Each structure stands twice: as structure tokens, then as C-alpha cells.
Amino acid sequence: MITNKRYEEHSYDLIVVGGGMSGLCAAIAAAKHGSHVALIHARPVLGGNASSEIRIHISGADQSLKQPDYAEGGLLYELMLENKKANPNFCYSIWDMVLFDAVKKQKNLEVYFNTVMYDAEAENDTITAIYCVQETTEMRFKLTAPLFVDATGNGTLGYYVGAEFRQGSESRHETGEPHAPEEANNERMGNTILLRAVDMGHPVKFTPPAFAKPLTEEMLKKRIHCAKMRDHIDVSESPDPEEYKRTSMTSSACNDYGYWWLELMGDGEDIIPDYEKIRDDLMGYCYGLWDHIKNGNEGLHDHESENFALTWVGALPGMRESRRLMGDYMLSECDVLEHRVFDDAICYGGWCVDLHAPHGLLDFDRLPSDCNFYRGVYTIPYRSYYSRNIKNLFMAGRDISTTKLGLASTRIIGCCAIGGEAVGIAAALCKKYGCNPRELMPHIGELQQLILKDDGYLPGYVNEDPADHARRATFTATSAKANGAPAQVKSGISRKIGEETNAWISDGIAEGGEVLTMKLDAPQTLSQLRLTFYSDFAYPIRVTMAPNRQKQQRDGVPAELVRDYTVVLKKDGKIVREIEIKDNYQRHNVLDFEPTACDTAEIRVTATCGIEDAWIYEVRAY
Q1: What is the pTM for the complete model shown?
Q2: Segment 294-347, tens digit of pLDDT
Q3: Among 391, 392, 490, 588, which residue has the fewest nearby CB atoms (within 10 Å)?
Q4: CA dihedral 151, 157, 158, 159 (to 10 degrees)
Q5: Beta strand pairing status for 37-40 and 109-112?
Q6: Which residue segments constitute the domains of the chain, with CATH numbers given?
């Protein structure tokens, strides 16, 4: 028997398997709320589909600026603001660094990079351990915890321990969904690799490899409505030519980023074991497409690609759909289109019902994506985030409990990330109450309030935290615009929604600053203030390779943010504590200090990051 194997055993409060954006946010959130967390990640960099290995930019409920008020906040927005400050040139390696730094500086969190979970065991419908190997060190691990999060995307942990799951499409008869097929089927949305090309300023030749699969203009053109379908000759993500004119950075007719529609499902009954074959085929079609762009001469289009050279081709396909682990509730397309607000809502979504052609690129006569847009948002219930038959298993990401058409909206990265954060907070509450995920339901109100407290947003819910002294305080200010009364900082909603600003807005900033004063209803001993500032969601801040999406962004951090401010705590008119903040670039500021008896807090804003008025959405006091 071979005995020379490196082996260790470790125990945690929570183990998160999968370090994409959902698992990353779950792990950080649980650790912030006091759980000892292990994050198991098979790759060397964090972020999953949003990492430098795959490079899908983070989209969400704003539907690519169709409804910007609903952009995701919380931990995801915090990470993107960190990146926006450090990464003006949209470098994916710096984005990797931002995520690496976030986990390394987080207390209570241990990350296992390059570590593959190869097995798991369960007893009495409860996971008892997972088994992992770290390929770089040859170390094997047995890891145990009372709670687990499956953030693998594929539902791998759940699959290993017998969690109930689904694949493919439900029938319209079962779900009542308007876009469901008449009969259930096993069609799945496929995997994609992306590429990037750059204008080198001089002619560049391209010789395709032997494995390249030829593609022609006839194969790529749209036969429905006689318009382009698999667009590969400009920089627009959208078939709308007006959007192209508004957002394109370059007049070049050759796209230097793409192509999301370079997608394959494979031929087997299960997309997961077909992953490597799909990758090989995608590589062939990717280089075949580039050969067509560079060398094709069919007299149909001039791709104007003579000076363009490939600078990056993804080697790790991004996955859209595989297993969905079943919870106590299965979110459906009907919930999405009806804008359901659940009593146990812990997340929200707003992306279209984005259903891709089942055979992707090879469905030449079909739209690559049939995206059913709508206005507004919907919520996702807590019951969709834990397994219905494995007692201590949470889900986060695209493997949560939905129908196939529900997944078509919830799978988008922004939605996955904020759902992961909510799951992490839920896991910390399970530790607090010594319970399993289902048993947390009586405490769902507490979970919802913690999500809001951490700068999350839940449609239909407002701050009702009884521990927040600011809710009972009186607010005044040195100046205020008509739509920005001081009292709005305790509206319970920490963002603009439609015409409602939900913020104090100063009338300019006078010399010496503008002051928002919070007068407590009675003297209190405070040790924390939470301030939420304005950041215009109409200007995205995500890292992206798409030139038209880069064009939508501004240089530097959002101009609306409060940059310099001072908090002064007073008791009976005397200053008892003063906190000065310079060069702030975050939307959500948490100020911790030694317990201080006071009756008043003054927030003096002396500078923003660019605009003339000071905006504060919310003040909380603990």
C-alpha cells in the first residue's frame, strides 16, 4: 500500500466549495459575521466566469443600463469600487489582485487555491466531510463543518452527497411558464470561450491551426428577419445599431472582444462530462472564426481586420447551465415576469429571461439568445438557497433551486454574487442559533435586515432594525435641495428609486463644509456609524474587455461619492469624539470606534469626488 501521501484534517464553521463570485461573496460575508470559513477553489484565481481566465463582465438587474436604479450593491459593489480605484485600464490581472486581496485581509477566512474537491460523504442526509487535493502541494485534506455551501456552479457537492437536482427544461404543463416547451427536454444552454484582438497599427497575418473548424458568412448570418445574428464585424454587443453608435469607442469594423455566441452544448446527455470535448470544439470554432474574419473572402463583408491580431483566447469555457439543486421552492419564469416579492426574499434579480439556443453556434437558423426583456425586478426566496433533502447544504450561484427558465435570469453574475452574500450571512446566523438552513426560517426577518444593513437591496423591504438609533433621531442640515430633505436619510431605502432620491442633498458645499446633524431621541452609547453615499448607478464600474462597455464608464471612482468628511460626536454640546475621513472612494462606510456616550452626531462634508452637492442616502447608529 502506498503511504507517502501528504494529508491533513481541518474543521470549520462553514465550508464554501467554489470561488466564483457567488462563493467568494458567501465566504467573505460569513467570515465578516463571525464564522470561521474555508473557501475551496479549484483554480489559481478567484471570480469564476468573471476572472481573468474567462473574462465575462459582471451584469445584473440593471439590464445593461436599461434600469440602472437596480444595480447590485453590497459586497459586490464594494469589490468593484476597489477595482475601479486601482484599475483604470481594465486589466484583468489587477481585478484578480483585488479579489485576492479581499480574501487575504478578511479575518476568519482561509482560502485553499488550486484545490479540487474529489469526494464527499454524508450520513443521515447530512454532509459530514469533503475530501480535497491541492494539486500544487500534493496535499490531501479531509475538511469538516456543520454547514456547507455548494457554489461550484455544477452542483458538484450536492451531486456527490445525493442532493436532489434537475437538468434540462420543464414542460409548460408542469410549470405554467409562457416560454416553456410543451414537453420536457434535456436541452441546456451551452459553454462559451471569448477572445480579444487589438489593432496593432500595421498589417498582421494569421495562419489558422490544423484543428480550426471553418466558418462562413452564410453559416453565421441570421436567416430570421433578414438581419445580422452572430455579429462579428463591429464592437457592439447589441443588434441595435443606435446603441452601437452611442457606445462604440472605435470606428473599426472588426470587433476586438467577443464572442458570447461562440457557444456549444455538446452531444451527450450530460453537459458536465462533455466539458473537455466541448472545450476542444470551441477552440476549433474560435480559431476558425478568426480565420474567417482575417482571411475570409466571400465578397459579403469587408471585416477590415488587416491590422488586428489576437492577444488572448480563453482556454477555460464559461458555463451557463448544468445541474440545479432542488430546494423547498423552485423559482419559475412566472415569478420573474410577475415581479414576485416573497415573504422570505433574500435576493433580487432583474436580468431578462435570457434563453440561449440549445446547440449554440450550431443552431444556425435560430437566434443565439432569445432574451425576453421586462421592466422591474423580482425577488428570490430563501427557500431556493438550501437543499430540500440534504439538511446542512446551502446553494449559491447558478445551481440554486429554479426552473430552467428561472435560471435563464438568475444565472447572471451580479445576481449570483448578491445571492452568495445573503447565503453567507444566513450561514453565520445558523451558527448563532445552532440550526440548519431550513430551521433558520423563523429568523428570516433578522436575515433580511442584516442584508439591508450591509448595503444590500431587497425590493419591498426597508430598514426596520430596532437596534438602529438613527431611525428614532431627528435630522437637520445646513442646507438642502427641495428633493433632498435631511430626514430622507432614515427613509429605510439606501438608493434612488425612480423619482425618489431617498437622500439628503446639500445645496452646494460652502466653505467649511455642509453639515448633516443627527439629534438622538435620548443619550446613547454608540460604537458604530454606517453611512451610505451616492454613486450614480447609471455609470457602470465593472471590469470589461468590451470597448462599448468601457466607453460607458468614467475615469476614476464615481464623482458623486463623498470624499472628505468629519464625524463629530457631542454630549450636552461638548465634543466627545471626532473622526476624520480623507480620500474615501467607497459607497458604504462603516466607522467603528470605542463606545462613546453622546446625544448628537454631526457629519461635516468638505469635499466630494467631483460633483457640487453632498449626497448621503442613509445614516445608521449602533
Answers
A1: 0.94
A2: 998 654 445 678 899 999 999 999 999 999 999 999 999 999 999 999 999 999
A3: 391
A4: 130
A5: parallel
A6: 6-168+322-453 (3.50.50.60), 191-319 (no CATH), 469-621 (2.60.120.260)
